[in-house]
C-alpha cells in the first residue's frame, strides 16, 4: 500500500522552531513529527510513503535517506513548484500512488497527531465499498471548523458545512483519508481544495464515508496546540501502560525522558513534559507542561512551564520561563531572567526579563 | 597586500533580512555589503581577502567562488569554532595574512560603509612609521562610543576612553585598521578585544596612529542605520557626479535604479532610494528613503517611505508603508494595506494593516 503525507510549506506558525528545521522534522515527544505518521503507516503494511512538499527539499531528502534505511520503507518526495492546495498534490504524485494492484492509498495532513487506527480504517473502507473514507473527530466548538454531516449508523457523508452558524453536527475533518485510485481521476493538476471541491462531489454520489476517530486528535502546527497535543499523546501512552513514561520520586504525571538525558537531584518534572536526547537538567529544576529539545541545558533552580525550549539552548539559574515562551535553536537565557511568553528567534542571548509576550528577534 | 574582513556571526540585528542570507551578502545600494569593501581593497592592490566568519560558511563560500572570478582577487574564509572577539580572528588567520614580504595588512569591520580612502591610509602609515594605523571618524555624541584620544597634528594615539562622561574628544574608532605583521605577535588565539587589549598596548608604546576619515561613515548593521547609510552613500555618489544616479522627471534627489528594473508612468521616486535588479514599480508609485531588493513588484498607487522591502516581495495597490517597515524575503502585502513599522519575517502574506511597530512572524 502507498501513502501521501501533505507536508506543504514554510511552517510559519511553528516559528521560531521552523527557522531551524522544516516543520515535519520538528520533534514531538522526542521524535520528528513526521516519523510518528510514517511508523504508523509502516505498521499496517504501507511500503511507500510520498511526501508532498514545496520547501527545503534538500533537508527533507537527507532525513529520508536516514529513515528509509532504519525503517525499511521507501520514502520519496513530490515537490510542488506552485502551491496546489489540499488536493492538487495528490494529482502531482499520481504515478507514485497508483500501481496495478488497485489498492486504496492513504492521505494524511502532516500536522496531525492521533492514535492512527489505520487497520480499522482499512476494514471500514472495505466494508462500505465506497470510493473514499475520511476520519472525523468530535470537537466541542464545531462552528469554528468545517463540519462533516453524516449518517450516524453507516457513516455515509451527506455534506460538508464550513463554520456552520446553526448546529449541524460536531464531527470535523481529522485530515486522514483512505482513497481508491479512482479519486485521482477527479483531481486536476491545479490548485484544488479537497474539502471544497473533491469530497463534496464524492459525497453527492454517496460514495464518501466517515469513521469517527477513536482516541485523541490534535493539529500541532502551532505552539499552543503542540503543548496540548503533548498532553494528549502522553495520556494515551499512560493508557497503554507504556514503559517509555518516566517513573520515580522526581516525576509527577506523564513524563517522557530520553535515555541520554540527565536529571539532577531535587528536581520535580511533570506533568506533560518531554525531555530530548543529551539534555542536562541540573538540580532543583521544576518543569511542567513543556518540551525540552535535544541538547538543552537547564541550570539549577530554574522553573519552566507551558513552554518549548529549542535545541541546544540554555536556561540560566533561577530563571522563570512560562506562558507559551518559545525559545528557538541556540538561545541562552541568563540567570534569574523571567520570560512571560517571550518568543525568541535562534542564536540570541536574553540578558533582561521579558515581562509580556513578545517576539525577540 | 592582504586584508581581513571581520564578518562575525548571525547578523541578528539585520533580521529579517539575515534570515535569508548571511549579513555580508545582504545588498546595500544594489551590491552585497561585503562587495563594497572587497572592491575598494582590490582597487588599491590587495591580492587576497580573508573573511573571518563563524556562521554559514557554505553560503559564503559559494558567493566567494563567484566573485573571485569576477573580480580577479583571491577570497578565502577563516572560520572561528568559538567566538574570538574582535582581535582573536586576526590571530586565527595569521598564516593567511603574513607572507614574508613584511607588508602591513588591512582589517575591516564588515558592517562599515565609507569612502574607503585606503590609498591615503597606506601613505599615512608609511609616513608615521608606527606599528598600526586606525581610521577614526568624527561624531556628534561621542559619549555613546569608545573615543580615541589623539594628538591632532601627528595623529599619534594617546589612549582609548569607553563612553567618556566628560568631553575628551569626538573621534571614534571607524573599524578600519592597517597593521604591521608584528601586531600579530601581540594577539593570542583566544577571545580578545582589539580596542580594550591590543590597541591600548600599542598606544602606550607610542606606535599607534589615527587618521581622520574624510567623507561619510556609517555602521549599517541595523535597519535604521542602513537607511541613513544609503542616504550618505548616494550623496557621495552625487558629489562625484556619478552617472549611476537616475535622472528624469520621475526622480527627486539621489536615486539608484538597477538597469533591469522597470518603472511605470506617473511615479515619483526619491530621495534616497535604491531599486534592485528585476524590480517592477507600477504606475503612480511614490518611493522615498527606501531600499527595494531584487525581484520586488510594487503595484499601482502605493506609497513607501523609510522602509526596506526584501527580495521577491510584492506590495499591493494603494498600500502605504512607512516608519521602518522591513519586509523579509517573499512577503506579500495585500491591496490597501497600511504598515506602520511592521517587521515581517520571510514567506508571509499580510492581509490586514499593521497599525503600530511590531514583528510579524
TrEMBL record, chain A:
An annotated GO BP: GDP-mannose biosynthetic process
Pathway assigned to this chain's UniProt record: Nucleotide-sugar biosynthesis; GDP-alpha-D-mannose biosynthesis; GDP-alpha-D-mannose from alpha-D-mannose 1-phosphate (GTP route): step 1/1
UniProt record similarity statement: Belongs to the transferase hexapeptide repeat family.
Keyword GTP-binding listed: yes
Name under which the protein is recorded: mannose-1-phosphate guanylyltransferase
Keywords: GTP-binding, Nucleotide-binding, Nucleotidyltransferase, Transferase
EC number(s) reported in the record: 2.7.7.13
Matching InterPro entries: GMPPB_C (IPR056729), GMPPB_N (IPR045233), Mannose-1P_guanyltransferase (IPR050486), NTP_transferase_dom (IPR005835), Nucleotide-diphossugar_trans (IPR029044)
Mannose-1-phosphate guanyltransferase C-terminal domain span: 251-360
Organism: Gossypium barbadense (Sea Island cotton)
Keyword Nucleotidyltransferase assigned: yes
Source species, domain of life: Eukaryota
One term of GO molecular function: GTP binding
From TrEMBL, chain B:
Lineage start: Eukaryota, Viridiplantae, Streptophyta, Embryophyta, Tracheophyta
The Nucleotidyl transferase domain, residue ranges: 2-233
Listed name of the protein: mannose-1-phosphate guanylyltransferase
GO annotation, biological process: GDP-mannose biosynthetic process
CDD domains per record: M1P_guanylylT_B_like_N
Keyword Nucleotide-binding in annotation: yes
Species in which this protein is naturally found: Gossypium mustelinum
Family (UniProt): Belongs to the transferase hexapeptide repeat family.
Annotated EC: 2.7.7.13
